[in-house]
Amino acid sequence: MDTSPPDLDVDCSAHSPEPVNFSQTQFQRQQSQKLEAIGQLAGGIAHDFNNMLTAIIGYTDLSLRRVGLENPIRRNLEETKKAAERAASLVRQLLAFSRKQILEPKVLDLNDVVKDMEKMLTRLIGENIKLATKLEPDLGSVKADPSQVEQIIMNLVVNARDAMPRGGKVTIETANVTFDHQTVLMHVSVKPGEYVMLAVSDTGSGMDRETQRRIFEPFFTTKDVGKGTGLGLSTVYGIVKQSDGNIWVYSEPGLGTMFKVYLPRIDNANEVICEKQETVLLRGTETILLVEDEEVVRGLTKSILMQAGYNVLDAKGGEEAIRVCRAHTGPIDLLLTDVVMPEVSGKEVADRLLELQPSIRVLFMSGYTDEAIVQHGVLDANVEFIQKPFTWLGLTRKVRDVLNREA
After folding, report:
1. Is the overall model pTM greater than 0.70, yes or no?
2. Domains of the chain, each with CATH number or no CATH
């Protein structure tokens, strides 16, 4: 097993790797800085789009609930919702690349993740491609978001499939790897320590060096027009980096490609993955204070909550929220607030309201994350958060979940 250290955008050859020198390290740093700048731009754009998509998906949901199954306009509404959901998927990929996606990390055995996906991946790649696995028996655990790890594997396998239109072989491997200080000196952004490696290799067409330098850039693709968005590998890049990992690629034209993902190994594997909750429409009668500066999103969210039975007070900003809270004679059960707002942030609103009503529950929402809520892109265990755009079901379920939790 090759356990050479990883690094983003390094041109590595499977047969004749060049020695690492100053110019190569400098190139690695320049590539990393370029991707960082692109990521900041992508994150800001994604936030604005998420606000608009929240309104489109939400109001379409509300309309669908009022339109009968035989109404001719229903199909138009369903297609509108599908298109908005596809757009939301693209935004999520941009957020992943910019490392502003919300992660909910759990302790994972990557072997289990690969085994669970094996049947689905076999169907995905088709009959003319063989899927093989080489899994380390005593593999260490990692702490990562399960759905994001699945997305990494899915995207890498789909890329491998597309590189082999006439058939071939995809191999998924896992291994325990150690990086020492001497090794780390030769590579940018790599920290010494214990890692778990996940590798996906193919026997496809391979890539030249110029292609390898750009593969993690958003919207860069070698596929024909209409065949790909160019966001698959940039999504993988963002997820890996946000999970404190590294990714390494090496390839030669005609000799296939291998991607190696390295995630930090953890010692304490006592935690368990929580099972996904069933999607059900939940109602309530509690009082909710909604704070959102975008009028269209505020109106939508208020409408959803009121139709679910809640008493909703609303404010367009932090100072108004404080006034509403002071004027309200009864208890407020939940504060639902946007994170980033003019003048007063959602975190500041929450802190001030907790002084007025210490028993109030808090649920943050945003189209992107903020350091007040998220440290290094990982959701703090004590903070409740819902990502925009959300659906009717997603919002009502999250609100009910927060209200039901013990203090």
Report:
1. no
2. 36-97 (1.10.287.130), 103-266 (3.30.565.10), 287-404 (3.40.50.2300)
